[in-house]
Design brief:
two-stranded antiparallel sheet, mainly alpha, binds zinc ion, about 325 residues, 13 helices, 2 domains
Amino acid sequence: MKRDEFFQKLGQVKFWRTRGQRAPHKPLLVLLALGRVARREERLARYEQDLEGPLVDLLERFGPPRKAIHPEYPFSRLPHDGSWEIPGKESLPATGQGDLHRSGLIKHAVTGGFPEPIYELLRSDSGLVQQAAQALLYEHFPYSLHDDIRTVAGFPAEFLVQEPPGPPYGLGVLRPSARPRDRNFRHNVLRAYDCCCAVCGFDLRLENELLGLEAAHIKWHSAGGPSMVPNGLALCSIHHKALDRGALGLAPIAGEFKVLISSKVYGESVATRWFWDCHDAPLRHPRSSDFKPSAEFVKWHAREVFRSPPRDSPRQPTRGNA
Ligand SMILES: [Zn+2]
């Protein structure tokens, strides 16, 4: 098997996405398997001992907030797309839709992994492992989360690298319709907010250069969010990361927006100022009302990313895990 063939195979994986809902189950399972190859682990992993726990962990941290998590679905559905193998799958008990039961996966000590030709190709080319991981991350998650996901998926330290800007190698094959990021987005968003963080007002400069100020997508670019100012916010690096992880959210209030901090965020000292003081505070106004965040994108973020509920005592410092 050649590199492009592999990417074509990966491109055949059907990633369920409807009405803007995120479903990163399959990409996270493939990333987990790529992490195993990067660590030189065996081709087939045991569902219960090797995959279920780490996949639940990835889904809880980086998946959309959902009441129930079903790691058995991507595991049993990936073989349909040709880039996953479950030895003995045909003899396992399945639902009417063909999904394998979690209890059966455990009872029969089921294993799964990349088919032999893909595994051998990846084993012989660690650059390809990196490129495949980058392409999947680019397609499903914002940049700010890429290294966190690689870390939790078990990639060794040498795989945690500064990624080149722009679409990664293989994405054009993996997903021909993938859109490049708009280079003017950062400039337009920072200008709309007068080069200040829309949450805390941070505006550090070294001579004429901005330090630690970024343009964030409210609805992720990878989820189809457009690179236009009403889908953007100028944010300091900390608040950008917090927005992308769902520690920070937005809510409409009287035609404007206010900042919400998740009740799942803990911290003391500086965190008090960076986070608790911002909770329930109005979002900074852009220089024109045309640039205000669009309610549609804010709603998407609240549903697909924000770790609700928000804390309920506005602007009261919290101590410890209280
Ligand atoms: Zn900030």
